[in-house]
Write a structure and sequence with these properties.
65% of the residues lie in helices and 0% in strands. Helix 4 packs across helix 5.
Amino acid sequence: DNTIGNKNQKIYPIIFLLISTVIIVSLKWLISYLFFPSEPLLNKVIFDLEDHLYFSLISNLSNFNFNPDYLANYIPNKIIPFPIYSLIIHAAIYSIFNEYSFIIVEYFSLFLFLYILFKIFKELNINIYFSIIFALGVFLLPEFLIYFKHSGINF
């Protein structure tokens, strides 16, 4: 059975995971807009996402610029190697949606992560309700630990 609850109140786990994903990612970006309302979206993307070193590579790959020159006195004469397999999806989506692509990929990635964890817990014969709770718990555990550390709670 792929539902949670009794016959009158059915909660489908995929819809619950999708709603959880939308809430988590939307809260992250809404809080960013509340604290810094005049900051451009590109700055929010660069500073809010953890791995900012790939942004220039994604931009160059989406523009098919395989020999970017970042230095004033350096003129590249050969193609610079790119980690293409890790960037191709980001570059393709970036060429369509520009700065919004990172937010779209974040929604998709979080949903995929939660869904895979849900399926793993379900394969371990954990019921559907606890599989969803454990998947969300695994994702939110680092945030809880950081919160407890800053609030002075020792564990």
